[in-house]
Amino acid sequence: MLVHSRRARWALWAGFLVLFVPLFALPLLVVLGASLATHWSGVLPSGPTLDHYRAATRGEALGALTTSLVTAVTASLLALIAGTWAALAGTALGRRGRRVLDALFVLPVAVPSVVVGLAVLVAFSQPPLLLNGTRWIVVAAHTVLVTAFAHQSVSAALDRLDPAYAQAAASLGARPGYVLRRVVLPLLLPSLTAATGLCFALSMGELSATMMLYPPDWTPLPVLIHAATDRGSLFTGSAVAVVLMATTLLVLSAVSRIRTRASYR
Amino acid sequence: MTDPTGRGILPTTAPTGRPEHPATSPTRHPQHPTAPPVNSPISGGSQKLPPTRPVTSPVSAGPSGRSARRWLPGSAGPVLWALPPVVLLCLFFLYPLALVLRQSVSPDTGGTSLRPYADVFASAAFREALGTTVWLALAATAGCLLLGFALALVIAFVPFPGARAVARFVDVFLSFPSFLVTLALLFVYGRVGIANGLWTGLTGAAEGPFRFLTTPWGVLLAEITYFTPFVMRPLLAAFSQLDTAQLEAASSLGARAPRIVRRVILPEALPALASGGSLVLVLCLNEFGIVLFTGAKGVTTLPMLVYSKAILESDYPGACVVAVVNVLISVGLYALYRMVSRRAGA
Question: ABC transmembrane type-1 domain spans which residues (chain A) (predicted)?
Fold first, then answer.
């Protein structure tokens, strides 16, 4: 305990609340409150209604939710495969090769996602691979963006993994493929699910690259939220945003459930 | 720095842009992967093996720790194994980036020239966007560092009931997209928002005084709000490693809280501050959602300029030039960040 005087402690806590609540708790509460209201220009929102949710769970918005879910699931699974593969391959490489591989796979984090969007748009609007106008261009951009995170998370876990298990299995005569399948991957499972959750959340909220290249028939939720707020329907936008947050949290908690069960294995 | 806490507050170093994205952390595997109580073949069990059993392990062959980690099947070389993901990355990431570079030197009039660069550098819009981006990012980083340090100090060293819940809330906060913050600020400080509504209700004035949302200050507020948790997490991880005996000793020798913070805590926190700060700096330079949602014509940052040039004006060479500049700045800074955090973690 750093501060011993009781009064100073209370003062600090009060200061903490004054900073923390308006900055971090208020935004989420405001979005939640607005999604249930028709009007808000006083302390509290007025005109309670569920209409925005009705609008946010049917028609265009429902389509956008499906779009987002399909994109996020596809992108995170692809990213998981590519990232894990690269991380596993990295452990077998020498020091220098490993550094090159790590640097390559971390690059998409440093490059602004708007630029990733622009680059993918430029590259796949021309032969040999014409993806522009299809949903695959969105999936491709999302995959590129989140693969870096999957790789990062899995290779960090691999570094912490005790090689003794794999060595022991191998010394008992297990072939490398068997060791990978029955020893290494099960031990990695918690990090694999964590990485999937991370990629999923990132892809669900991805706006920058998506704005650059979404085709009209493949509009993810963030784009829809932007369209709603842009034409002034802030309240509808909030309801869609709450749907986005709730879906993300739901999937994340489901994924973390897999993780808990795996860690008891 | 690895995750020494074991509490899942991942390190400053996971050099992922949002390395410690919330998603990973709140419930991040509570047990170390080596913990599960398998019938450990290492502990004793192996002694019961018939000694004659042939050891066919390719793994035990390598004397060094690195080669002991060979768990890839087949006889293909490690480089061959690394090829597929690298080829995919090249096809979907590096090749597109190279095309952006090529496009940036191919003006619409044809041929190859540096005309687009000259045009863009000469335009006032670009120079303004560059300036705005840089000062916004620097100011937001400074704000996040100050605020994050203060908040993390209270959570770690003056804990209150519910401090852990707050730390967890910060993680959840990070799993949401950045534009939600701007969306919320629109309700709070917007033209007919809460703050202005209160003001007009109290004073009877026709319009409220809060109009900063469409200026760079609104973007700054949103960025500080969204990115502060990125500083808090590595700081909390660093603080949890700090031996409290040091604090007790300092305090029993008569040092007061501000002095302890300055002389004991701050030096310990410096690596986390440095790497968290440079990460936030890069993320702020690249931030797009917050600026887009503000809807402010007056605030143009580099990513915003890329978007408006490419999508709204269809000026692809121009957009590519801005993109190249933005990438150079961000990647340069990110390399710096990796260096700092590697050194800090060493």
Answer: 65-253
Domain boundary, last residue among A29, A49, A69:
A49
**Residue-range definition of the domain harbouring residue A18:** 1-49
Domain ranges in chain B? 133-301
Provide the domain count of chain A: 2
- Smallest Cβ–Cβ distance between A122 and the set B96, B150, B181 belongs to B96
Same domain, A167 and A65: yes
Q: Each residue of A31-62: pLDDT tens digit?
A: 888 888 877 766 677 777 787 777 777 788 88
Question: Same domain for A40 and A95?
Answer: no
Candidates A91, A124, A208; nearest CB to B69: A91
φ/ψ (deg, to 5) at A113: -65, -25
B97 to chain A, closest Cα gap in Å: 5
Write out pLDDT tens, residues B217-275: 889 999 999 999 888 888 888 888 888 888 888 888 888 888 888 888 888 888 888 87
What would the two tokens of residue A87 be? 């991380």
Residues of A in contact with B93 (CB under 8 A): 107-108, 116, 119, 144
Residues of A in contact with B88 (CB under 8 A): 82
For the stretch A130-173, pLDDT in tens is 788 788 999 999 999 999 889 988 888 888 888 888 888 888 98
- B166 CB neighbours in chain A (<8 A) are 20
Do residues A250 and A240 share a domain?
yes
A98 and A155: one domain?
yes
Tell whether A254 is within 8 A of chain B (Cβ).
Answer: no
The alpha-carbon gap from B249 to the nearest alpha carbon of chain A, in Å, equals 11
Same domain, A55 and A42: no
- The Cα-based distances of A7 to A4, A10, A13, A16 in angstroms read 9, 5, 10, 14
pLDDT in tens, B264-319: 888 888 888 887 888 899 889 989 989 888 876 678 889 999 998 888 888 888 89
Residues A16 and A85 in one domain: no
Say if the Cβ atoms of B92 and A166 lie within 8 Å: no
- Cβ contact, residue pair B34, A161, below 8 Å: yes
Choose among B71, B225, B338: nearest Cβ to A184: B71
Q: Residues B53, A173: contact at Cβ < 8 Å?
A: yes
Instruction: Give the model confidence (pLDDT) of A85-117 as tens digits.
Output: 999 888 888 788 888 888 888 888 889 999 999
**pTM of the full structure:** 0.80
Chains A, B: CB contacts within 8 A come to: 387
* One-letter identity of residue A65: L
What is the assigned CATH class of domain B133-301?
mainly alpha
